[in-house]
Inverse folding.
């Protein structure tokens, strides 16, 4: 039996998880619970591409050569400097008889687990890529484990829109679950006009929030979020300013929020989020800029009896849930499409 | 009206919380919801004292002078290099009529909020301290806000034992709350022989855990924890090794834990804790060495549907709850007393 988390694919050092491994076995033999993907494109993590591009002074051929060297030597696209990977798009070539992922041959999928733990082999030398952008067209194969996550790309949505939604699909699913744990709660979303923030706002409303407020840092975002109609209130505040933020949230909701969702990707928002949340409430931190110590010590220093959740990017059914929100809510879809058009 | 979080005591920069302030107003005028403490001793944070002692090459007089300079210039004992403070012990001198803390004049108390946000003034030049240890006998006063936390020192326990318990009292209280959210769950405590870990183990058992396992890194701790009788099983494993740890936990509990409590203060325990926890379970991270990103990305990479809580050091009633456990559980008390005797 193969390991559901892919331990059998770890070549060195033996015994660690695939993400921590230096090298994976990317051979196309499919274990009983594995899935083999024909890869058509890699989306490199933004931090990884930036590091490579800066290292080589924007020389696309050199960037391409290094990406190829990483994949060849490690059996995965795991940037050793940034520690990050990305995701991939491809088509299912083979499905082991015991795979629990529900995929079938021919499905066009995007992987929702990081490339840093996904066995990958490239067979075209990345000839179709100029090395100048994060989107890497390529030919090769990749392997999913029993506990990997992949989403079938929908026929009815622009693939770029779908990928953009799938990238943040954990946020609305976890927001939905937390909001349903309260009776008609008030909900504040910091960074409400962003990708994860706008999805969290509509998820909260649909999950039974009595009142929602989207907090944004600049007037342009306020206008866009008001026009999209996703929140009962939209307020302008700096999420790094605990006093100003909590006053703005309390003003909009009639008191501190029952649930506060942090989708602002800048450091220093922990104390403001805690101070904006009522005793007995919950703060969900989705921002990767969150400091564990600032959150833990901040709540203690404020004698704040709030539950603080690390925003787990995985909730069962999260991909379909997020895509469903974008289909049903024209306001969210409009924000995503405007962002894609501006890229 | 004064601010419950002490904004009215912030001198500069104006508008930030007391912890973020450079300088606080430590005047002994008591606001309507404040409490004034006659200070008898400061317990400097270990990291803060170490930094000061190393900076001055162990010269106690120089360390003493710098601590005095910090308190005088900042109105609080907030080490500007380490960013840390400590706690204090003293006696209540005055209580504002609207203070919600439940303290009365003459109570001997320990503060459970950091010295980094506590207005403090010293009036004896720290003459009774040699500058060679973290315990600073002194004379002066300090101020508590409405949302500060202080515990009355019990008459029936050695003050050193009580302080040692109060230092980690958030862990058993939050463990109790989380375990009660499940029906007869299995519970794993990583670092089960330590201060917070041993308290979490007995809290879990009393809250209705069906089976508990304490995980420890070395044989000596295993012997001590087995002898204390706090867990159904005690196993030896490196919490930084996800595969070994999860196998050890599953072996002891008959499968992954419903609740995993991380009390190991070393980096790199996130993936092991997640892999040791069943889908639908909860991981509580009490270790200040926890990486937010490692937890968030690790759960996603493992497709683990686990709730991950930032271990909030404040839960209402946490001090009395922890002291009660130590009174009632000879095994825990023995571990604490052995640790104090070894200091």
């Amino acid at each position: 039996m193969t390991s559901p988390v892919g331990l059998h694919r770890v070549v060195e050092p033996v015994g660690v998880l695939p993400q921590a491994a230096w090298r994976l076995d990317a051979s196309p033999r499919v274990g009983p619970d594995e899935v083999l993907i024909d890869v058509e494109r890699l989306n490199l993590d933004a931090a990884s591409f930036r590091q490579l591009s800066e290292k080589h002074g924007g020389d696309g051929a050199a960037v391409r050569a290094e990406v190829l060297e990483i994949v060849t030597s490690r059996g995965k696209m795991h940037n050793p400097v940034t520690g990050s990977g990305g995701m991939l798009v491809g088509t299912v070539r083979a499905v082991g008889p015991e795979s629990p992922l529900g995929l079938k041959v021919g499905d066009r999928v995007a992987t929702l687990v990081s490339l840093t733990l996904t066995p990958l082999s490239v067979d075209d030398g990345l000839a179709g890529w100029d090395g100048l952008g994060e989107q890497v067209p390529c030919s090769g194969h990749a392997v999913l484990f029993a506990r990997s996550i992949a989403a079938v790309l929908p026929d009815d949505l622009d693939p770029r829109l779908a990928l953009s939604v799938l990238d943040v699909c954990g946020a609305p699913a976890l927001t939905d679950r937390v909001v349903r744990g309260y009776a008609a709660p008030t909900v504040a979303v910091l960074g409400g006009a962003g990708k994860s923030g706008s999805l969290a706002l509509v998820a909260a409303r649909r999950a039974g929030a009595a009142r929602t407020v989207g907090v944004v840092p600049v007037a342009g975002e306020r206008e866009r979020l008001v026009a999209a109609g996703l929140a009962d209130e939209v307020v302008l505040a700096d999420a790094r300013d605990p006093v100003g933020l909590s006053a703005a949230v309390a003003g909009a909701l009639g008191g501190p929020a029952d649930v506060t969702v942090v989708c602002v990707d800048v450091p220093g928002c922990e104390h403001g989020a805690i101070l904006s949340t009522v005793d007995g409430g919950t703060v969900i931190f989705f921002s990767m800029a969150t400091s564990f110590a600032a959150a833990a010590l901040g709540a203690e220093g404020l004698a704040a009896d709030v539950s603080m959740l690390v925003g787990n990017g995985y909730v069962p059914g999260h991909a379909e849930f997020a895509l469903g929100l974008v289909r049903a809510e024209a306001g969210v879809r409009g924000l995503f499409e405007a962002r894609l058009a501006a890229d």
